[in-house]
Amino acid sequence: MDNKYLILKGDRLVLPDQVIPSQYNLHLSPSLKDFTFNGTVDISVKVARETQIIIIHAIELKISLAKIGDLVASKISFYEPEEVAILEFDQSVMPIENTTLTLEFQGILNDQMRGFYRSKYTLNGEDRYMGSTQFEPTDARRSFPCFDEPALKAVFNVKLTIPSNLTALSNMPELSILENTNSTKTYTFDKTPKMSTYLLAYCFGEFTYIEGHTKDGVRVRIYKTAGQEESGEFALDVSIKSLNYYCNYFEISYPLTKCDQIAVPDFNLGAMENWGLITYREDMLLTSPQTNTNQRSEIAEVIAHELAHQWFGNLVTMDWWDSLYLNEGFATWVGCMATNHIFPEWNYWLKFTSTYLNSALSLDALDNSHPIEVPVFNSNQINEIFDTISYDKGSCIIRMMDGRFGESFRKGLVQYLKKHQYKNTRSDDLWDSISQVSGIDAKSFIDNFIKKTGYPVISFKATSSPGTFELTQKKFTYHQATTQTETQNTEQRSGSSSPGSTSSNSDNQGLWNCFIKIQTDQSTHEVMLDKKQCLVKIPNFNPITNPQAWIKPNFGQTGYYRIDYDPIIIKGLIPRIRSLELPATDRLGLINDSYHLCKAGLSSIGSYMELVGAYVNEKEASIWSVIVKHLSFIKELSHDEPYYPQLAQFITKLLKPISTRLKFDPVLGESSSDSMLREIINIELGSLGDTEVIMESKKRFQSFVEDTSSLHSDITSTVLNTVLLNGGELEQNELISQYLVSNNTSLKLNVQTAISKVSTPKLLEKALDFSLSKNVRAQDTFVSWYSIPSQLKPYALDYFQKHFKEIYAVHQSSSLFHHIVSSVLPIKLNQIQLDQIELFFSENPIANCERTIRQDIERIKINSIWFQQIGKDLLKWFDSQKKE
């Protein structure tokens, strides 16, 4: 490891440990005139060993003075690759239990949405600015010199001197506000609990707020910039209910006296869990009549996620970023649990399965995935693991633990939080607590799921003995399919067979401890598959003598694996799918496994299409979202194929009855699932050229242009996307005009998404030009790119390459940049095209996107080979349907 000032400690690069902080007294004076800030920080430190050099994190700062005790640094320099300042002293700094390290510094109130930054908004037609912070994971060092590692917890006393007409906020309530003589005032905030630097936060600007209290009297406020029309009422209600829920679940009171949440106009992430001052994108906190049901559910979940961190992550914190999955995975899981508690009608565990579980399993089957507990050394590597694996796989592992251990999991979690509050932990500390409570070795159960890339597919096959099944596990990989094609000629020449994967991972043939819950029509069973193969006897299960008998492995879909079902099992489940007797989560799991097994070459496309037909009576939006996504992807792969009209007809025939049942406009009192299902179905039908959906959309589009409030929020996306995809420049211009005049973030999000849903390269170029203009916030650029239709991605890729320098200059530091990169890559390419893409990215490296690019290229290869395999099979299947 190439390091100069940081030291290698195990599997991490950290600051030398001769100086250890315990308290920061920080005073900042930002200016909105020249976008700079001055600051002073007095850090109470312990000097553990004699030294003449102190290394401290600092970047994009100018340090004008550094002293420790009475010793003034004779030289201050910076080493940017490690983001540190080097403080050199002529005399040795001697060991001492407590002394003060003082630094005076200046910085830039930047526009990069990291560190201490400025955010622009409009009030009464004038541009105004507020200041905000984003420190996670490693950007506190851009605001003040600090020991910027999660394990170096300390207490913070914050002061902010700001213009007299503005308001300041920080993690803690203000103790005093002192009016100064120079039209400024100084806020002094209460002392924080002991916490990590990345959780510190402060904001200043013109704010309004609404307020409420939890059952324990904790003050909860929702802040927004002055003039922002959207409401915080929904967020306030969700926040109070979430906090009350967590106090009960964790058996620990909320650790602070207040919980402020603020909508920041420019914000790179969805939200950030700063202790006591949570920051959000405006569209992740505020609502209006233009906010649809799906957006409200997302807002509720994001709020619940961030509030969960106030305990798990803030009160108890990982000691290094390799345990990020535990922090984010837990908050994702328990955030869904809280959302499901507050809004049971949303059936949020079903949504969890359709989004987080599906996303994690899809990515984790790639060779270019990574273990959820992975060594990270520098800022780029740390930023790169804020990904699907850490959040989604992390949450699925937590859910599997809950499914395995039940109430013992919750009690172990409570023990863990109480034992380690205000401290740092490793993941083993949590597993130890669960083991102590449950009496079962939690670590050995979960270890392979954490340490290894990937997961198993479990073959669940009937034997000749009724009720007896043979279970076999092996690593699931899409390369089981690609290898068959790539090595076919080699096998013919050599007579040898492929091991089933091109993966170079040494753990390909490894084993996992798989806890399997099995449900039959009569009983429940639990099996631990901890070896490659075993036999399982299900008493009194015999579908031959009892045709009504059925069996469903991985009942509840809590296991982090896929099931390769015996055909006899699927045959028994199909009537239960048609009747909706099988629980929704299991109906979803069954169709999802079928699709991905087909993609991996473990089953046929015909088997999948037959199973889809069993879902004709399905009512759940989350299930249809997955099926439509599957079929839409196959449709996009097959766009130029001779069987495409038959495929389009099949999808239309499947979806049209649902559209007819739900009608085009929302019905008063309908379920939230129906509201979301209507959008899913009609958007897909619109993309297939359904005349009724197109006609109804165009009719309402004209009213929308005249009055945006005339369109119900739950059909806005349908109308805008359908009209743009089937329209032209006139409609695109109308939406661009609406975007420019609207201040409603929900509406702007829907409009921006639709602007790129076009049918010609010329209109796409115009949409992408607009996304890069000053009319669109940098945080929102990716929205336009994320919406690019698949048939136009080759043109988008060409545009991206031509404008790369311009795009990179603005977005290189953004955690959202990978969305832009992924959005321009076509879903299938030939080898020459792939080589050209790989050459481009090798010549134009993007530090935070290296793994994402490798994953995207691997997906393209998998898609291209899968497409070759399923084409003939689809044609045969459609021909067989004609004969029936």
UniProtKB/TrEMBL annotation:
Species name: Tieghemostelium lacteum (Slime mold)
Gene Ontology CC: one annotated term: extracellular space
Q: What is its EC number?
A: 3.4.11.-
GO BP annotation list? peptide catabolic process; proteolysis
What protein is this chain from? Aminopeptidase
Offer one Pfam family short name for this entry: Peptidase_M1
GO molecular function ontology, one term from the record: peptide binding
In this chain, Zn(2+) is annotated as bound at 305, 309, 328
